[in-house]
Amino acid sequence: IGFGAPFVENSTRVDYSTPGALKKFNVYGTVTGTAGTVNIYKGVEVTGTIGTADWSHDAQYNQYWIPGADYDFAAIVDATVASDDANDMPLTLTTLADTATEGNMNLKDMLYASAHVENATANQGRVNFNFSHLLSKVKFTVTSNAMGGYYHTVTGIKVSNFETGTYTINGGTWAGGDAKDVDFAEIDNVTSATGAKTNAEMLLVPNAAAFNVTFTVDLYKGTTKLGPETKTIPVTIKDAQDNVVGLQKGNSYNFTIACSVGNPIKFGVTNDPSWGDSTDIAIQ
Predict the structure, then answer these.
(1) Out of 11-20, 163-172, 179-188, 224-233, least confident range
(2) How far is CA 256 from CA 143, 183, 196, 229, in A?
(3) CA distance 220 to 240
(4) CB neighbourhood size of 80 (10 A)
(5) Across-strand partners of 166?
(6) How many whole angstroms separate alpha carbon 2 and alpha carbon 37?
(7) Are strands 252-259 and 136-144 parallel, antiparallel or unpaired?
(8) Whole-prediction pTM value?
(9) Distances (CA, A) of 237 to 12, 171, 192, 208, 255
């Protein structure tokens, strides 16, 4: 049984959608014959390079096509198998933390794929996986109409979400773990001249409910801060049928904060200044 080059759906941050970033996955598999089903792969690591035809694993894990048998395969990237079935096939997956220092909870970019082969032949081809992202990707963009030495800086950007999560493969649903505010990088010195500025994308556990976004907008004139304004905004994401769906797996979201300096100062004259009546003064 051979494995071909996998494909990754849906663009996300600089993880496995970056060309060549995906170099390994763990495969699970069963074979079903006339006498029942037996496990043949349980988390075996498969390695390779995107663009090459064959990916490989250690020869001690070699398995073989049995003509007429049925096969089921599952492949995961950067996830923990939280539960499995009687044939050691994964049922639920949990998030993994990255070791990188940047990011929110430093979630790794979880991927999942499955494949089924019905009535295999002795010369069955390679098993090719089409991976999908299981997390959501979020970033913020700030715009401003400030000019003439004014600019906006947005700090304290947070999204209320889950620190960890459990994904149920059958049905494709998420359940969140502990609630936690996800911190995003500040976006500074935004003016009409600089145009929109964006911070780094974060990976979040998909959230089917409404959630809050909090941020503080600071207006500056030169180096002087003229006044902050902190906002907490409830966000509800709906589908075309007006159903609340929240953050969805494999989807990317860009939240835009539109800043304004408000109304420009204007001047007017409320009276027409005129000279008073002439006063006669006799000088002797």
Answers:
(1) 11-20
(2) 7, 16, 9, 16
(3) 40
(4) 13
(5) 94, 175
(6) 20
(7) parallel
(8) 0.85
(9) 19, 21, 29, 9, 11
